[in-house]
Design goal:
globular, about 35% helix, 4-stranded mixed β-sheet, Endonuclease, Chain A, about 20% strand, about 130 residues, alpha+beta, 5 helices
């Protein structure tokens, strides 16, 4: 008798094959973004200036519909990598959300991340209704 091991549906396999994530945290963030229908690019190269030199920075997630907002997962908030990334994004005026292992270990971290994304990027209306005076 031959047993066939059940596998993932083809759509899930295709999604996983598109993005070979570096870590399980990156994969969790990608799943969260997909659940909120937020389009993203994984490891999108971005030109930045650091110490007067042009460099390429690879943010973990790049959100084009959030005005190019970057999301980076960094293990520790008191690490040199965290401080460097924070400075690079600030100096180049790139909106960014840095997530640590501590952030992802809290309950409802997905909702909290979504709220941070909304707070970092406010959709501003280009049209302002005319006020009536008098």
């Amino acid at each position: 008798m031959i047993f066939i091991k059940p596998t993932k549906p083809l759509e899930e396999k295709a999604k996983d094959a598109l993005y070979p994530y570096k870590s399980k945290e990156d994969k969790s963030i990608a799943q969260m973004l997909n659940s909120y229908n937020i389009p993203f690019f994984y490891k999108q190269p971005t030109l930045v200036i650091e110490n007067g030199k042009r460099m390429i920075e690879y943010s973990d997630f790049f959100l084009p519909t959030y005005n190019g907002l970057a999301i980076d997962f960094i293990i520790e908030s008191n690490s040199a990598i965290y401080r460097r990334k924070k400075n690079v994004y600030q100096d180049n005026q790139i909106p960014a959300v840095l997530i640590t292992h501590r952030d992802m270990s809290t309950p409802n971290w997905e909702k909290r991340l979504y709220n941070r994304l909304q707070g970092t990027y406010h959709i501003r209306s280009a049209y302002r209704p005319r006020r009536r005076y008098g």
